[in-house]
Amino acid sequence: MATTVFRKAHFNAAHRLHNPAWSDEKNAEVFGKCSNPKYHGHNYNLIVGVTGPKDPETGFVVDLSFLNRLITELVVERFDHKNLNEETAEFANVNPTAENIAEAIWRILRPELDDSLALKVILYETERNFVEYTGP
Amino acid sequence: MATTVFRKAHFNAAHRLHNPAWSDEKNAEVFGKCSNPKYHGHNYNLIVGVTGPKDPETGFVVDLSFLNRLITELVVERFDHKNLNEETAEFANVNPTAENIAEAIWRILRPELDDSLALKVILYETERNFVEYTGP
Amino acid sequence: MATTVFRKAHFNAAHRLHNPAWSDEKNAEVFGKCSNPKYHGHNYNLIVGVTGPKDPETGFVVDLSFLNRLITELVVERFDHKNLNEETAEFANVNPTAENIAEAIWRILRPELDDSLALKVILYETERNFVEYTGP
Amino acid sequence: MATTVFRKAHFNAAHRLHNPAWSDEKNAEVFGKCSNPKYHGHNYNLIVGVTGPKDPETGFVVDLSFLNRLITELVVERFDHKNLNEETAEFANVNPTAENIAEAIWRILRPELDDSLALKVILYETERNFVEYTGP
Amino acid sequence: MATTVFRKAHFNAAHRLHNPAWSDEKNAEVFGKCSNPKYHGHNYNLIVGVTGPKDPETGFVVDLSFLNRLITELVVERFDHKNLNEETAEFANVNPTAENIAEAIWRILRPELDDSLALKVILYETERNFVEYTGP
Amino acid sequence: MATTVFRKAHFNAAHRLHNPAWSDEKNAEVFGKCSNPKYHGHNYNLIVGVTGPKDPETGFVVDLSFLNRLITELVVERFDHKNLNEETAEFANVNPTAENIAEAIWRILRPELDDSLALKVILYETERNFVEYTGP
């Protein structure tokens, strides 16, 4: 019974790509202008997908109001208008690439959903660069 | 030989979310403003995906003119500018959630396609809420 | 000093096109399937533009939080998930064409803005049909 | 470890659909106006997806600068502002349907990526017609 | 009474930029890869805007079904799936730049509309390049 | 002879809204989370419009390759992947609101264009907030 429901949200944040184990030269070489120590930023567009059977009484896989509230309270309020490197626990020691942000969001949301539901996170860093994470 | 071709279409319809087995209070509690008895409506964007091998003579998985005609005649003409709850057989007794509409469209189109082809239906209720159904 | 700031919002509503001074036949002839007595609906995308000088202290033409609050409280809460013909004072006796909805929104918002500011309302009824109203 | 990174690109090209083994009449019957011998054209939007584990040092599945360079040098420079039928080796004897173009792009890019990475090609011929190819 | 209604349409065509009064070298120098003698092509997105007073009986500036029919019959059927340079009277001796195509469409539609209505043509050659023509 | 050509570009940058003449409390009160001292960021989408007569030899208002080069070299390279407050001369003492960024871009480009051409700058800070500046 393969139905997936998707909900779109967004947040705006500053970040830089940086591996603290590397020299500044190596960071600049690998990450280019994305490693600017003064930061740059993005409008992140987030799509969360939840797959499972439909509840026969509601016709919902999951109530989108509930899903929207989860995303707003646990993801958007945590990351919106923040400096990801300096102001979030998730990226204090993890490089905030789109891949790592998508996985962090998946890990935040996964415990909130019933085990019978599968979870997918799609994150647009720009209109041209995006990632999808479906779990380990 | 995994190629999928997609065709996008759209229809505009009125609907309300409603479970007739429930009281008005319970409907209002579960479905919120989506249960408004006077209805609201959406521009539904529909994407139909068909997966299969390519015909060696045409280079097509399926002729998009044929697929477009199927979608127009069997789906768009049935639902466009209609009140889904009151004017369609599909939702006379089924709650017209995006999940249920996507499944109904899948069931309408499935018999029209060769058994060797897989079918996927993606339905956008709004730019922020959408569903995907790939069959039972 | 011509700067315009724009804010986008949306609401979902049911409506029908109907002139009560006409017969049902004439309504059907002129408005086609848009005159369906059971209603259909749209995801309306609204863009509100405000033109004026920039405040030298803030660098704002108008505070977008203020503009967003106006739009949400006065427009979106009034029209979202409503049947425009049956449930709004604005369209009890006015045909809810995109042109008339845009003008109604303009009339709702105009008194809330300083006289030094010009107001423009753009309303998308679908991705292919939209209107712009800049005042009488 | 299922992370996919996507990169979007585009190219503009002329083409016609044509099977040289068929008569002009049969080509016109099957391919309709797409078989116009004087050609027509499209803005092709291309999305390339690469799936694999994240590099623990960079947090990347694949460096998007590298992926972008591959796409630009091997795909965009080959097809952009070209007549696909007359000016490319790939479609000298292959009908340039969206399905065949997607597969050709997949075959161009596949050898450039590590065997541990999966490759997906999504090609939009128009906003309403698109295809996805994930390999043989 | 400034209301403008807009209708969106599209057509796919091949073209090349070319001034026959110039040498091939000068054409290549000025128009670059757009001057490829074998042609390239685009998905042209067209937005037609009509400004005027609202009809008090319909609430329409112009009936969008009528406007859509004009655009389809006079513009889309003329240019869709055509080679603009070789197969259209408009560009037999006129360089089919986006500017010139927009003006040609304006000249085709202008006589069909009442003199009391103003006409605007917006033409997207690509998502990044577009033009607007509002008349001489 | 009113033709306008538009070219779209984008850049990603960090910024904060801040008036140095105000206390931190007043900045927080007026600019809310946009005043975060650690910065946030955006994908800025920029549309530059140039209005004028068409060159009879080229059919261009302005050569889009030339316009694209101006935008890339003078705007994108200056602002992309930068911290607007800390790393640009334009916003060292000017609050980087969308209004002020649009005006700064207009002032950068204006001297590069012939006096016979009018210039318009449209800047999207997010998909929902954007501004237009057409000069003093």
Shape of chain A: elongated
Largest interface: A-B, 19 and 26 residues
Strand order of the largest sheet of chain A: 3-1-2-4-5
What number of structural domains do the residues of chain A give? 1
CATH topology of chain A: Tetrahydropterin Synthase, Chain A
Quick one: how many beta strands of chain A? 5
CATH architecture call of chain A: 2-Layer Sandwich
CATH class of chain A: Alpha Beta
Please state the oligomeric state of the protein chains shown: homohexamer
Provide the CATH superfamily of chain A: 6-pyruvoyl tetrahydropterin synthase/QueD
- What fraction of the residues of chain A are assigned to beta strands by DSSP? 25-35%
Major sheet size, sense and barrel closure of chain A:
5 strands, mixed
User: Helical residue percent of chain A?
Assistant: 25-40%
Descriptive account of the structure:
The structure is a homohexamer of 136-residue chains. Chain A has 136 residues and is α+β, with helices and mostly antiparallel strands. Chain A has one domain: 2-Layer Sandwich (Tetrahydropterin Synthase, Chain A), CATH 3.30.479.10. Chain A is 29% helix and 29% strand. Chain A has four helices and five strands, in the order βαβαβααββ. Chain A has helices spanning 24-31, 64-79, 84-87, 98-109, and strands at residues 3-15, 40-52, 82-83, 118-124, 129-133. A five-stranded mixed β-sheet of chain A has the order 3-1-2-4-5. In chain A, a hairpin with a 4-residue loop joins strand 4 and strand 5. The radius of gyration of chain A is 16 Å and the shape is elongated. The model of chain A has no long low-confidence stretch (mean pLDDT 97). Chains A and D meet through helix 4 and strand 5 of A and strand 1 of D.
